[in-house]
Amino acid sequence: MNKRQIPVVVLAGFLGSGKTTLLNHLLHRSGGTRIGAIVNDFGAIEIDAMSVAGQLGDSTVSLGNGCLCCAVDASELDEYLERLAGPAAGIDVIVIEASGLAEPQELVKMVLASENPHIVYGGLVEVVDAAEFDATRERHPEVDRHLGIADLVVVNKTDRVPGAERERLLDVVRGLAGRAAVVAASYGRVDVELFFDRAPVGERVGQLSFDDLRDDDASVAQDGDAVALLGECAEGGCSGHAPHLHSAYESLSFTSEAPLDPRRLMALLDSRPEGLYRIKGHVDFGASDPRNRYAVHAVGRFLRFYPEPWAPDEPRLTQLVLIGSGIDVAGLEKGLDASRADAPHTADEQGMWGVLRYVQEDEETAEADLEA
User: Fold this and answer.
1) Alpha-carbon distance 265 to 353, whole Å?
2) H/E stretch holding 51
3) Pairing of strands 250-256, 318-324
4) Alpha-carbon distances of 125 from 23, 85, 129, 131, rounded to whole Å
5) Is the pTM here over 0.85, yes or no?
6) Is 133 exposed, middle or buried (0-12, 13-18, 19+ CB in 10 A)?
7) Cα gap 330→121, rounded to integer Å
8) Beta bridge partners of 340
9) CA 23, CA 232: separation in Å to the nearest integer?
10) What is each CA distance from 123 to 100, 135, 226, 318, 363, in whole angstroms?
């Protein structure tokens, strides 16, 4: 059985685009989710909370130039990921905030090359400064390529751009971003559900969540192991947060009591539309694999299935959530409806091959004939 894996999100963007501000926002809105971060200076730090950016500087490990793709290799990155992803750390999601001069493609390769069994790639998020986008493209034409490999693009600082110019800019970014979801934002305020599932805030022993700290006095003493530095809010500054965020994306929740046909579902997933950023949930393939349900995790172009044994009394359902920007919700729902199996009690011997291409092999159960 595959153990739960922690998503690792790569947060990239040129200098001044607002990456740190966005990361600070995620912490403010974490809802009890424990976030681990690897930041610009390459400080690997355990983050359950952040009270005032710039505190506890001794918790940051600097590697000089701060360019992650140049400062470390995959094995060194694994050492930092191990600190954050180990079961004892209790981290729910890890965010790698890249230097403004880092090469995001190299960082993605490093995460995908990780040998850490506790993590899974969580997508590349590229942050764009709306006010400086044209000038940035002129100075750094490689931004077009960066957008082309992103899974989610956050067009930040849209409050600094007039309405007509903002629409032109968004159209340009969408054209460059291909199938990635594109979300407009100000002050890095995006819905955190695009990044991670917020854990319920419950009683915690020994450590405080950010939700605890923000309602307490800033002078409250914290254990050095419970709070860590993210870095200064140099990219756009730290600002207040609105009480409610209006979602800039669409979502679809799908439940089916009937098993899904693996061939039909894979045809739908392999041709999933532009802007569909996340897919999460689990699938019942019926007689095609009666022992397991299949947890599914998709971020942009990345897709993976995890077979998990059914619990004895667990209802056999397919439950999926799809999240994206500018997606045809009705069309996706129709496609999922059409994926239901016509003969749920009959197994297609080759039907699961498409699914198994996206199953991460467990060392104890890997079969050579399933390797892609």
Assistant:
1) 12
2) none
3) antiparallel
4) 11, 20, 13, 19
5) no
6) buried
7) 28
8) 260
9) 11
10) 18, 26, 27, 24, 24
Contacts of 310 (CB under 8 A, 6+ apart): 291, 292, 293, 316
- Looking at this protein, which amino acid is placed at residue 334? K
- DSSP string covering 283-321: E--GGGSTTEEEEEEEETTEEEEEEEEPPTT----EEEE
| Token code pair at residue 332 | 């996706």
Kindly report the number of other CB atoms within 10 A of residue 66's CB atom.
Answer: 19
Q: What is the pLDDT of residues 189-199, one digit of tens each?
A: 988 888 876 65
One-letter amino acid for residue 25 of the chain:
H
DSSP 130-169: GGGHHHHHHH-TTHHHHHHH-SEEEEE-GGGS-HHHHHHH
For residues 78 and 20, the answer to whether their CB atoms sit within 8 Å is: no
Residue 269's CB is within 10 A of a number of other CB atoms, namely 19
297-329 tens-digit pLDDT: 887 888 989 999 999 999 999 999 888 878 899
Q: Could you tell me the two tokens for 356?
A: 């198994």
Torsions phi, psi for 143 (to 5 deg): -60, -30
Check if the beta carbon of residue 101 is closer than 8 Å to that of residue 67.
yes
Give CA–CA dist 361/180, Å, rounded. 27
* CB 188 within 8 Å of CB 155: no
User: Which residue in 9, 68, 18, 80 sits closest to 44, CA to CA?
Assistant: 80
Residues sharing a CB contact under 8 Å with residue 274, sequence separation 6 or more, in sequence order: 178, 179, 180, 326
Quick one: average pLDDT of 269-295?
A: 91
Using an 8 Å Cβ cutoff, are 241 and 331 in contact?
Answer: no
Tokens standing for 47?
Answer: 């983050």
